[in-house]
Write a structure and sequence with these properties.
The complex is a heterotrimer of chains A (245), B (506) and C (378).
Chain A (H helix, E strand, L loop, with lengths): L1 E4 L5 H14 L3 E8 L14 E7 L9 E7 L13 E6 L15 E4 L20 E4 L12 E7 L19 E6 L12 E5 L2 H18 L3 H6 L3 E5 L13
Parallel strand pairs in A: 1-2, 2-3, 3-4, 4-5, 5-6, 6-7, 7-8, 8-9
Antiparallel strand pairs in A: 9-11, 10-11
Chain B lengths: L12 E5 L9 H5 L5 E3 L4 E3 L9 H5 L5 E5 L12 H13 L4 E2 L14 E3 L20 E3 L8 E3 L5 E3 L7 E3 L3 E5 L7 H14 L2 E3 L16 E5 L8 H4 L4 E5 L10 E3 L6 H7 L7 E3 L9 H14 L6 E6 L4 H10 L4 E5 L8 E2 H6 L4 H14 L7 E5 L5 H9 L4 E4 L1 H6 L22 H4 L4 H26 L14 E3 L4 H7 L2 E2 L3
Parallel strand pairs in B: 11-12, 11-21, 12-13, 13-14, 14-17, 17-18, 18-20, 20-21, 22-23
Antiparallel strand pairs in B: 1-4, 2-3, 5-19, 6-22, 7-10, 8-9, 15-16
Chain C lengths: L14 E10 L5 E2 L1 H9 L9 E6 L9 E7 L2 H14 E8 L13 E9 L13 H15 L3 E5 L4 E6 L3 H7 L6 E2 L1 E9 L12 E3 L2 E6 L5 H10 L9 H15 L4 H8 L4 H4 L4 H14 L9 E6 L2 E6 L8 E5 L2 E5 L2 H7 L5 E3 L7 E4 L15
Antiparallel strand pairs in C: 1-10, 1-16, 2-9, 3-8, 3-10, 4-6, 4-7, 5-6, 11-12, 12-13, 13-14, 14-18, 15-16, 15-17
Helix pairs in contact in C: 1-10, 5-6, 6-7
Classes of the chains: A alpha/beta (245), B alpha/beta (506), C alpha+beta (378).
The complex binds iron/sulfur cluster (2 copies).
């Protein structure tokens, strides 16, 4: 275990300390007074590595990460979990724009809200199943060209406001679960909406419980409501658009 | 059999039939509008002199037994005395007539669109995904005030103070260019009307009046008033979304039109409101417009007759002094100016005009846009560019050079099967397009070709969206007039100057 | 060698960047320390080729005078400009802009400021009836275009821009911003991409009391520029910031649109949204787009716009550039990154991400009398 006071520290220095620590066999990191340092957890490996972050980590938190767990105790900025391969990112506050871009595996759990373009081009591959669960609400272009994996939108705090637009535009793989039914006219024509059935719920439950356990909140309220599920109408929504010269 | 014994002019094409493949179904005889084929008792005969390479016969031959080839019998090559010139001398010496033809010029002038390249984003600004993100092509044609006039309602919210001048709303910046009933068939017009309605754009009646069958398509029609005033009356003016005053046409600036009396059957007679069998002559000028103030008078006469509810468009050919002319037209009160470049099509026009008069639309457009901006009146009218827009790339370039929308004429006919043979003037079009012969017109199914037109404009619109996305903008208005996104290749300084663009690499 | 004017053969000057703004709605002043700390967190968003600040409320003793900040390449240029100023303005005070030599900013132009007002009997009066603001704008454009080696980079009242080539935290030290107090600050960290940095090209761009800092590249620059040229604006600097400033000038001062509506022009709603509005609104927004389509800023941007009544921050209509806002008491903060705000306000009352194209507008509670008249005379 190591505690690093990141106050005034450049990200290069901070991330070097983390990488060196991991090499030396340290498994638990506590980062204090983080404010804006980019790339925390970028490209690191080690399933048992846990990095606890106090303060506001900068952009690209957990980019290319391959195994470790990052716990952000406050808000985070843009591009969390960019092209992440494995591991877990827990965010106790809100997340910025473009969460989980091109994410291929691992989990991102957000207790609060997330910004624009959450889960953009997230994709599953073989056994890898990337998962994003958002507690609050999201901005526009949610799940834009989503290609695989699971996104769960809980809409806790009963924020009725769901004014994100261009919902699931270009989605052609994966599944979105919603705890609230929303005006279907807001969706792109690329997707279909169903009520989640028992199979879905059984599948979903283990992730929801993992989520609630991670944040120490009660799972009852969350799993009580019926869920809705959104799936793409086609894996090739644009096939008809082209003609060969 | 050829007419060679009577004329110096050899057949331009040979219609060759593979008699081994031919099953004597006689479809070719039926299909050819020019009577090239006949049945010789045991096999099909072809009169090569009649063939115009319209492509109908081989398209419909079930056995693929027909090939149309260029007549290999050559004139001695001479870069100065080109074949066409020699043949025209023979034609004219044999008949004493003016050489006429249909479609646009066949001369090989420089095509400026082909020397303009488009920009795209790399790193410093992102491209935008046109399929997943909104990408707006909606276009409004009409006069725009220079500033927004607002008031505030009781709650302090801003509201519009004065109503906007009337606008044509287009879902994509294309219109079908004016082609009259008479010059083309009613079925061809119907195909365009069906497509225009489905696409949320407009077609144009041309100067031949509005056939009853098209009346229900009023929301997608511009009605035209030309010098012949065929079919023009109060209801006609009010039956479309806009009125276009036709001054000129790119293929024949300064030239009128002439639909021969034999083509004026009952239906055309009713639509044009002239007696059956009389020639329909469009004078070269409007005889109430001898000067720019007269144009103003006609524009306002139309506006009065339509209660100022329809934008008034003025169509002119791109000629040398086009910038000043359009400036005058805008100041005369036109809401839309339609500029037709010299490669534009026609039903019939003298070759000397078609091949030698006017200027390219690219240069005209760039100069007009610049001039209107310099004068601070670019907002006073929208500009439609025409004159052989051959692809969505031409459309994009035209819009970046300053057009609000582009017009499609020849391309729309190509959709209907036109092979650009240029013989529209004969009235024998095998495709049922530029003909009034019922047996030929019947074969052009408006629904089938309406759908194909819809497909083409949809595809071109998607292509424009791809280009916009690559340029990092999500609305057509950010491309319009944005010459900064264009570069020239293989152009002289004078040409670049006239276009108002930089050479590639700069 | 430093450069104060854009002499590079590029059609336009584009850059990436970071930005911040701090405003106190009750006009409580703070010194430049906070804004410096905030923008320095965004250090990596720039490349050391441009940093700058705008401050409002810093010249209370000369609040009625135009405060000209001018950079000079050489002393003859200074003499020429001063000749012009003397002929046309009453100069109440002039002095070098206080600077502090740091090892980071070693090469800089000569920086001088003048507190002035146009003479009522200036020669120009023989030909025009320009208001003072218009005359000041004309003078600024005249100097910037025709006086080689001189560049006016600030011309408002009771406000000033402080900028140059360097990282913003170094520029702040250079201008000793910690000794300056104001009730509104904006800051910019620049990453120019197609010209070397030049002093005049750093942000903020200002004109009278307007100041703009901006992040992103406007993909519609070409048509925005041609649109403004139709209204006789001269786009000498060829920067996006200049375009944005002039569009706002045209819309707010000349066309008298309310600030919020003017901002809607820059990031107009999509037709898809407009079509669903109630009739009055739909008519208004459709007209807005029909009339001002060429003024739409297309492409990624976030801007912070300061004016005498307050501050506006907003981003483009599909949110391609980041923007975070926070409030604490009477203070409102905006920045490209939340960390920049947290550096000076660790626990704000609220933190939020403004939606695409929806401006954050903070106006001072006690308003100044709005300035009248158009800026540019035709
Ligand atoms: S259409 Fe073809 S197969 Fe039929 S008669 Fe003509 S050449 Fe023969
Ligand atoms: S429309 Fe004219 S050019 Fe086209 S095929 Fe018919 S006759 Fe030939």
């Amino acid at each position: 275990m190591i505690t690093i006071d990141a106050a005034g520290m450049h990200y290069k220095e901070l991330n070097r300390l983390i990488r060196e620590g991991i090499e030396k066999g340290i498994r638990k990191f506590f980062l204090e007074n983080v404010n804006g340092q980019y790339y925390i957890g970028d490209g690191i490996k080690g399933d048992d590595v846990v990095i606890n972050i106090n303060g506001i980590p900068g952009n690209d938190l957990g980019a290319f990460m391959d195994g470790p767990t990052l716990i952000a105790n406050n808000n985070v900025q843009d591009n969390v979990g960019n092209t992440m391969n494995a591991g877990k990112i827990l965010i106790k506050g809100d997340a910025g724009d473009v969460v989980g871009y091109g994410m291929r595996g691992g989990k991102i759990y957000i207790l609060g809200n997330a910004g624009y373009r959450v889960g953009i081009h997230m994709k599953g591959y073989n056994e890898q199943l990337p998962i994003i669960i958002i507690g609050g609400k999201v901005g526009s272009f949610f799940a834009e060209y989503m290609a695989g994996g699971i996104i769960v939108l809980l809409g806790l705090n009963d924020s009725d406001e769901f004014d994100s637009e261009y919902f699931a535009s270009g989605m052609h793989g994966g599944t979105i679960y919603l705890r609230k039914k929303i005006d279907f006219s807001k969706y792109s024509k690329d997707v279909e909406l169903y009520e989640a059935d028992e199979n879905d719920m059984n599948f979903l439950k283990k992730y929801l419980i993992d989520y609630t356990d991670s944040f120490n909140i009660s799972s009852e309220e969350i799993t009580a409501k019926p869920f809705y599920k959104i799936v793409p109408s086609s894996a090739r929504p644009y096939a008809h658009l082209y003609t060969s010269a | 059999m050829t007419k060679s014994s009577f004329s110096n002019i050899q057949s331009e094409y040979l219609a060759l039939i593979d008699h081994n493949k031919c099953v004597r179904c006689k479809r070719c005889i039926q299909n050819c509008g020019w009577g090239t084929y006949s049945f010789g008792g045991d096999k099909i005969l072809a009169d090569h002199s009649k063939c115009v390479a319209c492509g109908r016969c081989y398209t419909y031959c079930p056995e693929g037994a027909i090939s149309i080839v260029k007549n290999p019998t050559v004139l001695r090559e001479n870069a100065n005395w080109k074949e066409g010139l020699i043949k025209n001398i023979w034609r004219q010496s044999e008949t004493g007539g003016i050489v006429i033809s249909g479609m646009g010029t066949t001369f090989k002038y420089k095509k400026y669109f082909d020397h303009i390249l488009l920009d795209a984003c790399q790193v410093t600004n992102p491209s935008i995904d046109p399929l997943r993100e909104p990408m707006e092509l909606r276009t409004y044609l009409g006069k725009k005030p220079s500033k927004l006039d607002i008031d505030f309602d009781e709650t302090g919210e801003p509201i519009l103070k004065s109503k906007m001048p009337p606008q044509i709303e287009l879902q994509t910046p294309f219109v079908f260019g004016a082609m009259s009933y008479g010059s083309i068939s009613l079925n061809a017009q119907k195909a365009m009307a069906l497509a225009a309605r489905a696409l949320g754009i407009v077609m144009n009646t041309g100067e031949g009046g509005l056939h009853d069958d098209l009346v229900p398509f009023g929301k997608n029609i511009i009605v035209q008033v030309a010098s012949g005033r065929f079919g023009v009356h109060r209801d006609y003016l009010n039956s479309g979304v806009a009125v276009e005053i036709k001054i000129g046409q790119g293929a024949k600036p300064g030239i009128g039109g002439h639909l021969p009396g034999e083509k004026i059957g009952a239906d055309i007679s009713r639509t044009r409101m002239i007696p059956v069998g009389t020639d329909a002559i469009s004078p070269a000028p409007h005889h109430d417009i001898y000067s720019i103030e007269d144009l103003r008078q006609l524009i306002y006469a139309v506006k009065e007759a339509t209660d100022y509810e329809k934008p008034v468009s003025v169509k002119v050919a791109a000629v040398h002094n086009i910038a000043a002319i359009v400036s005058g037209i805008v100041r005369a009160g036109a809401d839309i100016v339609y500029i037709d470049g010299y490669t534009g099509g026609t039903g019939a026009a003298p070759n000397i005009i078609k091949d030698h008069v006017g200027i390219p639309i690219e240069l005209a457009l760039a100069q007009v846009d610049e001039r209107l901006r310099e004068e601070g009146i670019r907002n006073e009218a929208s500009i439609i560019a025409a004159g052989s827009i051959r692809s969505s790339a031409d459309a994009v370039k035209a819009i970046a050079l300053g057009a609000d929308a582009v017009a499609i004429g020849t391309a729309a006919l190509v959709v209907m099967g036109c092979h650009v043979c240029g013989k529209c003037n004969t009235g024998n079009c095998s495709w049922g397009i530029t003909t009034q012969r019922p047996e030929l017109v019947r074969r052009l199914d408006p629904e089938v070709y309406g759908e194909r037109l819809y497909n083409l404009i949809s595809a071109w619109s998607h292509e424009i969206q791809e280009v916009l996305g690559a340029m990092g903008v999500n609305s057509i208005e950010s491309l319009r007039g944005s010459k900064e996104r264009l570069r020239g290749v293989e152009l002289t300084d004078a040409e670049l100057n006239a276009l108002g663009i930089k050479h590639a690499g700069l | 060698m430093f450069r104060i004017k854009n002499k590079f053969n590029a059609e336009r000057d584009i850059s990436g960047c970071g930005l911040c703004g701090i405003i106190n709605a009750k006009k409580v002043k703070t010194n430049g320390g906070d804004i410096k700390r905030a923008i320095s967190v965004e250090h990596d968003r720039g490349n050391g080729l441009g940093g700058g600040f705008a401050v409002y409320g810093n010249y209370p003793d000369y609040a009625e005078l135009y405060a000209f900040h001018i950079m000079y390449d050489n002393l003859p240029a200074k003499a020429d400009v001063e000749e012009y100023l003397k002929n046309n303005f009453i100069i109440e005070k002039e002095e070098p802009i206080p600077t502090f030599r740091t090892s980071k900013i070693y090469d800089h132009p000569y920086l001088h400021r003048y507190f002035i007002k146009p003479k009522s009997d200036r020669p120009d009066k023989l030909f025009h009836e320009l208001g003072d603001d218009d005359f000041v704008v004309n003078s600024v454009m005249l100097i910037n275009q025709n006086y080689d080696g001189a560049y006016v980079f600030s011309s408002g009242k009771n406000m000033g821009a402080f900028k140059g080539v360097g990282y913003p935290e170094d520029i702040a030290d250079f201008y000793k911003l910690e000794e300056i107090e104001g009730y509104m600050w904006t800051a910019h960290n620049r990453f120019p991409t197609n010209t070397p940095g030049w002093w005049g090209g750093a942000h903020p761009f200002t004109l009278l009391d307007w100041s703009i800092v901006h992040n992103g590249e406007i993909s519609s620059y070409g048509i925005n520029k041609r649109y403004l040229e139709m209204y006789k604006y001269n786009l000498a600097l060829r920067t996006d910031t200049e375009v944005i400033t002039y569009i706002l000038d045209l819309l707010i001062r000349k066309h008298k649109l309310p600030v919020r509506l003017a901002l809607t022009v820059l990031a107009s709603p999509f037709y898809q949204k407009i079509d669903k509005m109630d009739d009055d609104k739909k008519e208004l927004f459709t007209a807005l787009r029909q009339i001002y389509g060429s003024a739409l800023l297309n492409g990624p941007f976030a801007i912070v716009f300061g004016y005498s009544n307050g501050m506006v921050a907003m981003n483009d209509r599909i949110k391609l550039r980041p923007l975070v806002a926070a409030a604490m008491g009477d203070f409102t903060y905006v920045a490209s990154e939340e960390a920049a705000i947290r550096a000076v306000c660790p626990s704000p009352d609220i933190v939020w991400s403004p939606k695409a194209g929806e401006p954050v507008i903070v106006e001072f509670e006690e308003k100044n009398i709005p300035q009248k008249g158009g800026l540019i005379s035709l």
